[in-house]
Amino acid sequence: MAKESFYSAVLLDHFRHSRNKGELDGADIVRRGHNPRCGDEIEVGLYLQGEKLAQVKFRGRGCSVCMASASMMTEAVTGCSKQEAYHLWEEMRDLFGDGNENDVKHPTNNLQALSVVREYPARQRCVLISWEALRDALRGL
Amino acid sequence: MSESAFLLLENKIADFPLLQSAQHSCLHYLDNAATTQKPASVISAMADCYQSCYAPIHRGLYPLAAAATALYENSRVKLAGFIGAEKSEQIVFTRSTTEAINMVAWGWARNRLQAGDYIWVTRMEHHSNFLPWQRICKLCNAKLRIIELHEDGTLNLDAATELFSKRTRLIALCHVSNVLGGVNPVGALCEQAAALNIPVLVDAAQSVAHIPIDVGVLDCDFLVFSAHKMYGPTGIGALYAKSARLEEMEPLLLGGGMVDEVSDETRSWSAIPARFEAGSPNLADAVGFAAAVDYLGGIGMRRIEAHVDSLTRRAGAALARIDGLRLIAPMTPTSASIISFDMPGIHPHDIAQVLGECGVAVRAGHHCCQPLMHSLGLSATTRASFGVYNRQDDIDALLAAIDRVRRLFA
Ligand SMILES: Cc1ncc(COP(=O)(O)O)c(C=O)c1O
Question: Which residue of chain A has the CA closest to B23?
């Protein structure tokens, strides 16, 4: 049977009531992340004010983890500088990519709800799709 | 007792150590189309082989090697009997269904295909019965033609107007789709094709464990299947072919054991089937394969078919009544062992994950059938598939878990 339930209230809340989800009109840059294995596809749009990400939005479709992760990502990086946002991406990459267990930093903010996914290697890609789109957008600026 | 209850087998869980173990006593294993669990008789036959009759095949001159070789060849005889092959030499041991299809594509079809020829497959093929044909068609400037499906998931043979054309060199199709679960009319197709001398390859990966097959009656040219989907070991499969087709086929793998004479410039292939079994033969898996055949035979294929059919029908009927759940293919009179479904708004990976948390093992994904998924407009489905050890309580657990999915994501 399950260890800690995969579907925490926070995760389900971000899935059911995704934040910053909608059309990306007027974004300074839009980038896409996808996983052809499950058909998940997320587009992330950045709205800048000076050096800061004044608004970050997404649209697309995917499983609950993919949508919740995208929603949490937009909340986490809104108001960040480009460097801060890129740094968060790197932390997520280490946490859900092939990061070494010893140097990963566990998130302390609302991203904590995603930590459980680390125990499910098959779902880790779902977390990263929106973050990869964020990375590409930041690099493209 | 209802009629369908009458069709059910007695409880088979006791035959399967994994399902009986304390660790998995709550498991409802409904992923049989991916691979089946193994009965104790298969596991012990393989262990016995390693413990008491293991040596190289076709090579040693000492008594143990002779005994091991006899064991290997007896497995072939068993397999031949199981599918009604006339001669055991018509069974080639392969690594899997996948390898068997590649052997036919590369070793047989490639040499016979000319520019403008057709190879026909269907919209519902597994990648393993699609990609090998796609590649050789590209290579030979031939055309890969596809039998499309009706709305209900059955083959639309009327629309495949050139199926029996003079250009068709082969028809390759599955007996049962690993996504849709319907039984294709392979017998009728083989009969029509035979009248025009068009060879047919039947991918029996999903049918061989549930439906009695007699190649003498079916009259296909090639039949391929894997042991691991019929309660046997992973790592071995079989290619059956008519003797004339095997004579026409070039070996895909070259190496030891498949050649009689080798010089710097020339070689002469060994007799069939050794010609197609390069390298050291896989004795223990062949023994396990034969033990799986004995296991199925001991129950009786007709009874297995009735059992699995009855479970599939009941599960299908119950699932069809659930609001917000859609069967990918409606249950037809020929549904067998597999049900795929979709819950619009809920991703199949979420469905399978919640089901997994409830102890119900199903598969979610494209099932290695992307051409089919594209035509259905889906990226993935959830699939439940049944085997001899499944019971009504597995269906009940599936339904309860789906209820939980609905409550969680509603
Ligand atoms: C219809 C069908 N054909 C072929 C295969 C390939 O079988 P294997 O992976 O054992 O080679 C499968 C297995 O998933 C299948 O379902």
Answer: A1
